[in-house]
Amino acid sequence: MSVVRRYGVLLIILLVVGGLALIFRDRISGSAAELQVGDCFDEPTALVEIKDVQHHPCTEAHTGEVVAVLKHPAAPGASVPTTDAMRDFFGTTCLSLANAYIGGDILAQDVLDFGGFYPTDAGWAKGDRRLTCYLTRLDHKPMTTSMKAAPKPS
């Protein structure tokens, strides 16, 4: 088999595998660090280091929906924020982003809440500042639709 043909076959295999991964991305377990806005997943129940989450299409039962992915504004080399400081940051930043995502006030409707993933102390020390804000229900029941507000006509 010629070199060109071998590389052609390898390229086709890679394209097929990559395409299948994209098609089934919302049905497989994946890294919590790779969540994107609009992704629906099962919120972990344990208060431990979260590495993987189970992805779901938003039309199927899920307990979390990503509303924002952002970077904490702390400078490189800054010490890890205290738990209270991180809660305050999430409370102000994620709340406004969650409200914009649903097109309303989550505190006024008394159904949704928000949570977040943030770096471990070791990750923070290495410069990881990625934060993920997500919606969940106050009663912890699953959602079966996206909470994203439909665009308003202009």
Shape designation: globular
Bin the helical content.
25-40%
Low-confidence stretches: 7-28
Q: What's the rounded overall pLDDT mean?
A: 81
Strand order of the largest sheet: 1-3-2-4-6-5
How much strand? 15-25%
Describe the structure.
The protein has 4 helices and 6 strands; from the N terminus they run H-E-E-E-E-H-H-E-H-E. It is α+β, with helices and mostly antiparallel strands and 154 residues long. It has a 6-stranded antiparallel β-sheet with strand order 1-3-2-4-6-5. The N and C termini lie far apart (59 Å). It has helices at residues 3-23, 83-102, 106-109, 121-125, and strands at 29-31, 40-41, 52-56, 64-71, 112-117, 130-137. It has one domain (26-137).
Question: Which secondary structure elements does this structure contain, and how are they paired or packed?
Answer:
Blueprint: H1 3-23, E1 29-31, E2 40-41, E3 52-56, E4 64-71, H2 83-102, H3 106-109, E5 112-117, H4 121-125, E6 130-137
Antiparallel strand pairs: 1-3, 2-3, 2-4, 4-6, 5-6
